[in-house]
Amino acid sequence: MDGDWDEVARIPFPPPGVHAMPTPVTTMTFDTSQELLWTGNDYGRVTSFYGRELQRYTSFKAHTTPDGPVRQILVNDKGVIVLGSRDVHMASRKGPPIWHIRHDDMKDLRCMTFTSKGTSEILAAGSQDTMFVIDLAKGEIVKQVPTAHSYKIMKKSRYICAATKTGTVNLIDPINFSVIKSWNAHAALISDMDARNDFIVTCGYSLRQGQNYMLDPFLNVFDIKKMSSMSPIPFPAGAAFVRMHPRMSTTSIVMSQGGQMHVVDLMNPNTSNVRQANTMSYLTMFEIAPSGESVALADGEFNIHLWGSHSKLRFVDYASQTEFATPEDPLPTTEWTADTPLNSIGMPYYREVLASTWPELVADVGAPPTKLDAQFLASLKQTEFGMYGRNTRGLRRNQVEDTRNLDKSGASGMPAPKFLSEKARESANTPISGSNDKADDLANPLMLMEIDPSRAECPPMYRNVEIKYSKFGVDDFDFGFYNKTQYSGLEIHIANSYANSLLQVMHFTPLIRNIALQHAATACVADTCLLCELGFLFDMLQKADGSICQATNLLKTLSHLPQAGPLGLLEEEPNGSPLTAMLQGLTRFLLDKIVQDYKTIQPNSGLMEQMLATSATNSIRCINCRSEYTRPASGFYNDLLYPQSLKNTGRGQKLPRISFSQILKSSVERETTSKGWCSKCQRYQNIAARKTIHSIPAVFVINTLISNAEQRRLWSTPGFLPEEIGVIVDHGHFFCYEGEDLKLHLQRGIHNITVYSLIGMALNIDPGPGQKPHLVAMANAAHAQPTAPQTSQWHLFNDFLVRPVSTEEALAFQPSWKMPSVVVFQLKEANNKLDMDWKKNIDTSLLYEDTNPHTHTKTYRALEGPEIEMNSDGVRETIRPIVYALARASVVRGQGEDEGLPFIDDYISIREPIVDYLTSYSGITHQDLDPRVSKHNLVPLKVAYKKLWILLNLGCKFLGHGLKQDFRVINIHIPKTQVIDTIDLFYLKSRLRKLSLAFLAWYLLKEDIQLETHDSIEDARTALKLYRKYLEFDDAGVLEPMLQDIYRAGRENNFKPPKRGSDAQRTLTPPLPIDASAAPTTPSNISQVTSNGFGAGSTWTPGKGSPLR
């Protein structure tokens, strides 16, 4: 500090309003790159001053007035970071906000400092048990750190030096934020603290006589390098404020509240430079500029003092230019005449606050609009004034939905799991991965969460689950987080996936599963056969053993059926019906359709009618003339018919004792009276109708048709739905028993009673405001086991969320949010009878057929592109990914004399118009799939799929590169024991990168493939050669060194084969014979496909730069 230092400027601190009283300065700091001094007040306002005159530069509100004063200000090259007690705000130096963070755990923040990442990250703490690590570039909380200390001051040196409210200073690791060292600096409180280079200096209070706080007459010093305290430096006036000099590493400036200033050398405390600040009041704050050439003081009369040398005063050594507002040009003189337009006269300047001024509040803007369901919009009716309809949104009339705070993960009540790529990175950095996996399983909220059946609100387990998409697509989502069982769930990003619940219940019905698999094994190739698709799906669910599956092919086939749209069964054609009504309609349609599909192969068999049909005749009688006639009334499903007495029951009245068996009896016999036409009376009369039952099905499929509150109350009666029922058909009458009545009839053995077991049900779930109603399945997996277990094994199937539940929970219903939609019973004697002989009876004739490539003519419709939502903060979020379709399936022989020769090479005739052929990755062009000009073997998707499915169940192994995505597009699940994937064989987990087929072929085989486009046969042959190389390396014991060499070469070439010159020649694969008729066809003898052969089956192999890689 030079001898000519003196007060250069003194200004009053601006009050918070025009007529407001002055307020003290709550925090103050110098800018690190511009000639600015930043200050904060008690009302959340930040004000900056420019240059030696302290000219007012900017002023803005960082947080609302009720949130209290500005606690601290930090500056980096991007802007200004302002700390409040409940929030953190960042703004540019000119005032506009960059981001604002407010968190529920921010209760009393006091201080912040930069971390080991420099000025791009801060650590915020206070009188609370949580510290926050905030990324300044993104404006996001990246970590929450628990702490047992209450911090009031933080400074960054070698470590983060943090002063607590008890007089202790903690040294915090700037990387992991753990406390390394604690130092008791003062007996009571710490008034001020600074840290720079190797020293920490503090001044504070001690309790004196009478329990009063008094400033300690000394300065405490701590040596960070030696981790020890140094001798205190005496300061008789009472040390209130202290700062380390920014340019002299051992120099400290100490000030008293009376304005006495000492410049002390910590290594030679006997020499000091003493100054006195001219103030009429006490000092409240002190700060030194980064240049060391100026000092700012704040006093109790709300003034700011600037000290320094008149000739050398500057805030920073090399200041960047401060940007000022563009000066306004003086307005030209206007001659006022009768023709002068009024809008040429500017508005006058006002000193008083106008009534139209906006309040000085930090307010969130741009609340997302309310999302209205397509089915809800379709149900509205158009009028002159707008549209109206029934309120089905789960909100009260005129209630505004809070879309600003609508958090999807919070609404579901379950945190989203980490992406698989994140887990892979963490496991690669963790020496012992097994313990971490186990810890993740134990910490899984699905395993810890219990369900209370009597709970009136919807538990998180039943709420909507959503797939999150990373840059790697759906394959990066951790479905295993939601399912720890051996039973597979179904994905939901597919159109018409509301059917998942019904499909799961049918899968756990052994009789339906058996007949679907048996039919799939026949020669049926009809591309609209839903029974085949059910068989394919059931086989996939069984083989997946808990892995995620999808019903893509089945649901796509459903959408292609012309009857599905008019019946209101398609989500892409909304008709306003609720999901439960759509599912019940789908149940009726699906049962009728699979019976028809079964008869296409076995027209004379009555097996399906025996399994599903309730054989009956309907007796119709005119009450007036007593004339009667009958007509067939058999059906494959039963709609429940509730007694009229329920409608006459008031809310406060007790329901009459009605059992499920009584309702089922009245629903099956269906004795009704209604108005109808009597041909004998030739007029409308009262007509009585009643069914005469002849036989009952092996599988009872029941639509509950719950439509009012009384029926909901009935179903919510504890024990209403039994796990077993007994049925007797006698002289056309249907009798149903349950509970003790059933046990009594079984003991007597007088009547031939048929016992049914409850297989499962599809449930309609209404989670409440903020979430859409959806459907889940509840199935008793015990009845679908090869051997019957001792107890029931009820499982909840909430799409891809699967977990076991108790019997009490499975059979408990809540009128407000959980009601059954479809219920399925099956003959008890058919439980656990799984037919596995279908594999021995697979019709393999399809493998020998040579399909004429010009016999199929198809029309095209568009494949869906990705559905992307743009959030209010500008972040793109994928709601539904792009839909890929199978375009070509090629299978070559894996061994024998014909090794490498293709015996399946089918191009798929696609019904939908194609958004993008991805020719550079797939090798497919428009001409390849156009049946009018294509030279290839065009077949329906069903034919290509069934060929691969037959090979799968014959035991063939599938060899290829990157088969996971291929199998996903095909919608087939291949067990790991039947997959040889070269992308996994040549992979080091520690490198977190998988290698492309083209790079491996270049490095290991010295071959260049995929030069211009892709060819699936070429890719299959290359994968086969790579597998032979792998076996050679493994047998020689050099696999690990070779993998290291491959990755080393990959880094040198950016994991791509070097580019060749324009004269690069490419041989056509497969080699084209002279005779076009000798092109690859299906084999002429099944013996060529052996169970230990290798097949490379795929649509196409994603290669370099592919969006599927």
Automatic annotation (TrEMBL):
Gene Ontology MF term list: metal ion binding; nucleic acid binding; poly(A)-specific ribonuclease activity
Residues where a divalent metal cation binds: 966, 1019
Cofactor or coenzyme needed: a divalent metal cation
Control of this protein's activity: Positively regulated by the regulatory subunit PAN3.
Region described as Disordered: 396-418, 1053-1109
Localization per record: Cytoplasm
Compositional bias of kind Basic and acidic residues: 398-407
InterPro entries: PAN2, PAN2-PAN3_catalytic_subunit, PAN2_N, PAN2_UCH_dom, Papain-like_cys_pep_sf, Quinoprotein_ADH-like_sf, Ribonucl_H, RNaseH-like_sf
Pfam family, one: UCH_1
Entry keyword set: Cytoplasm, Exonuclease, Hydrolase, Metal-binding, mRNA processing, Nuclease, WD repeat
SUPFAM superfamilies hit by this protein: Cysteine proteinases, Quinoprotein alcohol dehydrogenase-like, Ribonuclease H-like
Gene Ontology CC terms, in alphabetical order: P-body; PAN complex
EC number of the protein: 3.1.13.4
Keyword tRNA-binding: no
Catalytic activity, as annotated: Exonucleolytic cleavage of poly(A) to 5'-AMP
Cofactor comment: Binds 2 metal cations per subunit in the catalytic exonuclease domain.
Gene Ontology biological-process annotations: mRNA processing; nuclear-transcribed mRNA poly(A) tail shortening
Residue spans of biased composition, Polar residues class: 1079-1101
Family annotation (SMART domains): EXOIII
Keyword Mitochondrion recorded: no
Domain USP: 488-828
Domain notes: The linker, or PAN3 interaction domain (PID), between the WD40 repeats and the pseudo-UCH domain mediates interaction with PAN3.
Subunit structure and binding partners: Forms a heterotrimer with an asymmetric homodimer of the regulatory subunit PAN3 to form the poly(A)-nuclease (PAN) deadenylation complex.
Function per UniProt: Catalytic subunit of the poly(A)-nuclease (PAN) deadenylation complex, one of two cytoplasmic mRNA deadenylases involved in mRNA turnover. PAN specifically shortens poly(A) tails of RNA and the activity is stimulated by poly(A)-binding protein PAB1. PAN deadenylation is followed by rapid degradation of the shortened mRNA tails by the CCR4-NOT complex. Deadenylated mRNAs are then degraded by two alternative mechanisms, namely exosome-mediated 3'-5' exonucleolytic degradation, or deadenlyation-dependent mRNA decaping and subsequent 5'-3' exonucleolytic degradation by XRN1.
Family indicated by similarity: Belongs to the peptidase C19 family. PAN2 subfamily.
Record-given protein name: PAN2-PAN3 deadenylation complex catalytic subunit PAN2
